[in-house]
Amino acid sequence: MHASLWREVWIIFWITLASLLIGLASGRYFIAAAIGFGFYIVVQLRHLNSLYRWLLSRGSAEVPDAEGLWGDVFAEIRKLMKQAEQREDALAGMAQRFQNAASAMPDAVVILTEHDEIEWANRNAARWLGVRYPRDAGMRLGNLLRDPEFSRYLTRGDFTEPLEMPSPANAENTVSIQIIPFGARQKLVLGRDVTHLHRLEQMRRTFVANVSHELRTPITVLAGFIETLSDLPAIQQDDLRRYLATMQDQSLRMQRLVDDLLTLSRLETAPPHRREDAVAIPALLAGLLEQAEILSGEAHHRLTLDAQPKLKLLGSGEELHSAFSNLIINAIRYTPAGGEIRLRWWMEDDQARFSVTDTGEGIAPEHIPHLTERFYRVDTARSRASGGTGLGLSIVKHVLARHDAQLQIESDPGHGSKFTCVFPAARVLREPAITID
Ligand code: ADP
Predict the structure, then answer these.
(1) DSSP sequence for 320-334
(2) pTM above 0.70, yes or no
(3) Ligand 1 centroid from CA 330, angstroms
(4) Strand runs (DSSP E) across 334-405, as ranges?
(5) Which of 328, 341, 371 best tests ligand 1's pocket when mutated (most atoms within 8 Å of CB)?
(6) Ligand 1 in contact with 361 (CB < 6 A)?
(7) How far apart (Å, rounded) are the C-alpha atoms in residues 31 and 65?
(8) Does residue 134 have a cis peptide bond before it, meaning omega lies within 30 degrees of 0?
(9) Taking a C-beta distance cutoff of 8 angstroms, is the pair 319, 402 a contact?
(10) For ligand 1, atom 13, which residue shows the shortest CA distance?
(11) pLDDT tens digits, one per residue of 218-236
């Protein structure tokens, strides 16, 4: 048996014995026993009363102290209290850690009560949803966001798909809102900034629309001529030649467009070069100059090349050929007959530079930042008429990015333009050709 219980049994035993002895001596057994046990009961009631008073204090007062069995009961209560306190501390710590993690999240996090009132929100809730905690605590989220689409989404109760809408904090951003019901009809609202994805999606749509538009004209022209030709009972040789020349023009235009699109898609999807060649740029430019003279043809541009011999570049010969030829072809396209086109390859400020300078029509300053965007043209009709696809400078930009290089565009409208590719020193080789894996 428990030691304190033994002690109580002994006390009762001694009270009984003492009552018997006193009773024996005085002959008043009952009074002796009543005094002894009365005293015992008073002591017990006192302890019981202090326990009751402590319980009434809801644990805010000190647990009472006592000897014996009551002392053990109070000690056990104290132990239970301590364990509960430790558990509460651990839970509070965990809740705090969760709150810290939710606060540090880049997304907006809002906890709603069953009546859709704001119970808690993290810091980024202000940034993406315009919900400030604790200022907005207790407010209904529907009243705060005031977007009819969001109100419908919140009341519909089907949260399988997220809702995309302009950010209530900044209409230029797009947020994706996901609601997750939990617990007793509470809700967790997550708001994520998807502006970048939204813009990419818009760019993709514009791109597809542009490509379709570019291809539609030549296809329509070709289909029209084929239909005309097949309907004609007889045709003059001259007419036939004219028709065929136009058809060839249109099919070449489609071919150029498809070639440029394939080049762009290869550049975009290809992994970084695993093998870098030492590309002999002076030889590459000499070849391009010959092609440029043929292309210039009747226009008789004055073409010159000034290349620093033995100045080589680490990279992909094929890609550099494509980028440089695009710049040269543009110079021929946008420079009137007899104009001057200078190609230069040299070292300056520890960087290798390739420039194409022309005395053409030039470009107004407001167009310059957009020139490398796909299908951006200063004059669409002029570009198409000269065989442009609107993709040349996008290809140049991608090739240069894959060579850690930059494109600089300077232009004086009416007098000419200068396109310069600037390569970092790390890509420059001045020795005879070597191959590096
Ligand atoms: P395009 O196939 O139309 O030439 P690019 O991407 O190569 O497409 O060039 C985009 C636009 O930049 C051209 O349509 C033209 O308006 C302008 N541009 C490019 N190079 C020159 C240049 N050397 N002189 C004047 N304008 C140029």
Answers:
(1) HHHHHHHHHHHHHHT
(2) no
(3) 6
(4) 340-348, 351-358
(5) 371
(6) yes
(7) 31
(8) yes
(9) yes
(10) 377
(11) 999 999 999 988 888 888 8
